[in-house]
Design goal:
Elements (H helix, E strand, L loop, with lengths): L6 E2 L19 E8 L2 E9 L5 E8 L6 E2 L11 H7 L2 E10 L2 E10 L2 E9 L5 E6 L5 E6 L8 E7 L8 E6 L6 E7 L10 E4 L4 E3 L2 E12 L2 E11 L7 E5 L9 H4 L7 E8 L4 E8 L3 E8 H10 L1 E2 L3
Antiparallel strand pairs: 1-21, 2-3, 3-4, 4-5, 6-7, 7-8, 8-9, 10-11, 11-12, 12-13, 14-16, 15-16, 16-17, 17-18, 18-22, 19-20, 20-21
The protein binds beta-D-mannopyranose.
Beta-D-mannopyranose binds next to strand 6.
Amino acid sequence: MRPNIIKRYKGNPILTKEDVPYPVETVHNAGVIKHRGRYIMLFRAHRRNGRSIIGLAEGPDGFHFQVRSEPFLVPSTDHEFMTYEEYGVEDPRICEIDGEYLITYSAYSRYGVRIGLALTKDFKVVKRLALITQADCRNVVIFPQKFNSLYLRLDRPHSGISPWSIWLSYSPDLIYWGNSKLAMKPLKYHWDELKIGPGATPFPTSQGWLHIYHGAFQTMSGAIYRLGVALHDPKDPAKILGVADDWILQPEDPWEVTGYVPNVVFTCGAIPEEDGTVKIYWGGADRVICVGTAQISDLVDLCLTKPRPPL
Ligand code: BMA
């Protein structure tokens, strides 16, 4: 039997609601980054009213985390943002660029779901910069580098007339985004046929930008969320060099199969390490946080040797 390309950490799940010093019913979907030699994790958590906040946990090695006593980001009370965050803030992604950390998160309200952008230098003080999409859009990840002096992000707009796909947009200043292009769409009768969306912040490899995304497949008992991988051109990420035909992770452990929402593995963060591995973080069944490691070269090979068409 071929081994899984992602090796699950034996101590999974690495974070549960029991680890949180304030009342929450879930911890999941976490953006993770290294900051001053420590691993910082921003995770989504449901409060008992069913709405989400973002908590912070940190630790020394990427496997053991301690949750800070107070949440990191809760729905804003600032006039500019509060209207669009009244139902909660979800699924944070972190991008380090120019020594600062950009955080993109989903902002929910009666008007739909938009993406908020916040900035921190130290994970103590956080400042919201802007809401950077209209409704309805989720799962925005920003590349940690500019291309031709422009910031670049992967978007996932919702559509009534085409399957939910991954787009790209550019910005000179992080606030105004445009020149959007379709990058990748779900493939018919494939594990990701229902919808796909950006997952972890892309990271550079010797052969291009690696992006771990999520895809869903509809079954008679609900959707199954799995993870896949795509390789983008190093200089022009609008070009996709290969999307792996096979998924790289599917719900298998009991806490991935059963939970708040069954059969979900969903990523918001991955950390490439100097030894050629990457730590990938995922929410299990929208209730707990798990981690696994993969060889970066295996992921790149999968994109190049066994691809499916991006479009
Ligand atoms: C998506 C988002 C994610 C969640 C996933 C599975 O639409 O809500 O936060 O993990 O569904 O429930």
